[in-house]
Each structure stands twice: as structure tokens, then as C-alpha cells.
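Mods, move this if it's the wrong board.
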Amino acid sequence: MANILKTMLVNIYRDPNIVENIFIGAYCTPKEVTIYINLFKYFCDVFACSYKEILGIDPNIIQNVIKAYKYVKLILHKL
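Not the wrong board. C-alpha cells:
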């Protein structure tokens, strides 16, 4: 799998008043873009776009780990 250098922003939410963006590779064909957008819109209730949507999930099942060097000062940002 190669790195995707350029991406384009796409709103996948079914309601146009709600914005939940994802990035799709900019080099996809228009047909592929349409297929991906339809796929993500169909399964939009499966994907979490924010931490608020995944509250209650047991961290023993899934958690995000950021590995850092011991000598680097970590900076905490608000969600």
C-alpha cells in the first residue's frame, strides 16, 4: 500500500446540515470517488468521527496509543 500524497475533503453525513468529513485520495477517478462517498454515507453510523461518538467503549478492547521518546516533553491538548 502506497502513501497517499494528496487528498480531498468529503462530507459523508447524510444530512447536509451536519458536517462529518473524511479525506479521500485526490487521484481517485470520479467513479471511485462516487463509490467511496456512497459507501461511507451508507455506513456513516458505523464510523466514529469524534471521541464523543465512542464514549463507553471499554479501553481494554480498543485504545489509541501514541509512542514517544522518553526525553520528549508531552503537550496535552483539549479534545
